[in-house]
Design brief:
homodimer; mainly alpha; three-stranded antiparallel beta sheet; DNA-binding
DNA sequence: GCTTGACCTTCCTATTGTAGGAACCTGTAA
DNA sequence: TTACAGGTTCCTACAATAGGAAGGTCAAGC
């Protein structure tokens, strides 16, 4: 009753069998008990761990963070401050990632809003990409010429 | 004057030399002209292309999307509608990704807010992860037993 | 008992884009 | 001529997941 195959553990935990094997291989979970022919067998407590991992992954925690959270989970003498730090670090990373994506989204939405989107070739989106191309010429000129290795040489026609 | 090494093209475009080689290897940019000893040489127009790519990457476009944008850039008979579609698809993907991250951030911030973060072990964050563990037991029971391969067998003590 | 089909095993590959390093060759300034 | 910066290719890693191939096993039904 308390032992099941990897497939059943997968169903019970929501973690694909493939991932369970992977988590074992990287040491996130201990090596499973095997029967004589090599099949892994899992107890309910193993499924609990997998569920914990799944929830952590759903919240976007890295495998590494989950490894630390699991250790704290098992440690009855843990300080909640340690758990909180992991969570706050992750929250900061999430906020940073969101900010990055929004910094991309802003210009794109603005440009797309101003694009006719018709049969003509005129397009502020292209203009933006090309603007940056044009800007590069200035920057290229401002690059200190050091020793201008820009002469034509054998095989290169320029 | 119009020809430079990969390092100079990297400086002028903001695309690392390593990435320039990579972009060439996957066909994003054409194969560079080489001198007799195999050195790649780049013209200003190549740097323009690299700048275009860099801007596209900064806006979060995938390499594949940039490949299509480059083709449209070169096509003077392009329809701005095609450019716009690529941009709008990307905007949708960005918004979706932002929503995913916010769906993670919400619970984490809430839980962290309610965590004392002191020396005691009590922690709503852990409780959340464990809640989902508890929930798994119900779901496990609801899994149709089909042919309950949960009996003890050779080598498995349960 | 035997067949069958679902399920298990390991191992390899791909994804996405970037980066590091090793081993070796080349260009150029001094 | 000699350094040394900078070029070349090739291999590896990242992070987490997923697909497939080749082959062995379990359990049910006959």
């Amino acid at each position: 009753m308390t032992s099941m195959t990897i497939g059943d553990a997968a169903k019970a935990s929501g973690v694909p069998a493939k991932m369970i094997r992977y988590y074992e291989s990287i040491g996130l979970i201990p090596k499973a008990v095997r029967n004589d022919s090599g099949y892994r067998y899992y107890a309910i407590t193993d499924v609990h761990t997998l569920r914990f991992i799944r929830r952590g992954r759903d919240l976007g925690f890295s495998i590494d963070a989950i490894m630390r959270l699991l250790a704290l989970w098992r440690d009855h003498h843990r300080a909640s401050a340690d758990v909180k730090r992991i969570a706050l670090d992750h929250a900061a990373a999430l906020r940073s990632k969101i900010a990055d994506l929004e910094a991309m989204l802003g210009p794109i939405e603005y440009l797309a809003d101003h694009c006719q989107g018709d049969h003509r070739s005129d397009c502020p989106i292209m203009d933006d990409l090309a603007d940056h191309v044009a800007r590069s010429e200035h920057e290229a000129r401002e690059t200190r010429p050091r020793h201008t290795k820009t002469t034509q040489r054998r095989g290169v026609s320029t």
